[in-house]
Specification:
The chain is mainly alpha-helical and about 70 residues long. It has four helices and no strands.
């Protein structure tokens, strides 16, 4: 579990910076991949893995908040 905490701690800052630009899942995945970040499994980010990462970090995209309100 310690490695999870380290990973999430490392990812929190770049993800928050990108969220500040209003990036959605797909844009976040592209940006993180472009910066050389990988998922916990060492793979490039996809829309779905970004969604999981944000959930684990307790963060939301602007779009995700809208989606939640609609449901």
């Amino acid at each position: 579990a310690a490695s999870n905490q380290t990973y999430f701690a490392k990812m929190a800052e770049p993800v928050q910076e990108l969220l500040a630009f209003g990036f959605g899942y797909k844009a976040l995945a592209s940006a993180l991949n472009a910066k050389g970040y990988l998922t916990q499994r060492g793979k490039p980010f996809t829309r779905e893995s970004v969604r999981t990462l944000l959930k684990n970090l307790g963060l939301y995209t602007v779009g995700a908040e809208e989606e939640c309100k609609e449901q």
